[in-house]
Hints:
single chain; mainly alpha; 64% helix; elongated
Amino acid sequence: PAGTGPDSGIKTEAKANIxxxxxxxxxxxxxxxxxxxxxxxxxxxAGFKAQFPVTGGACKNCHDTFREEEKK
Length: 72
């Protein structure tokens, strides 16, 4: 949202491209929602074992693309 970008002075772990590549970010959000919905619908261990890494991959993709590594 307006006022939350890198010039706001607010400390964030978000990479600057989260504000400049909104289409990719929005697509990543939709993908995570879709995969999370599938995971929530799983009713057996085999289905969970198959869907969990797919859901995790959707989460990781967004973090890899839009989040800075934690500085120690």
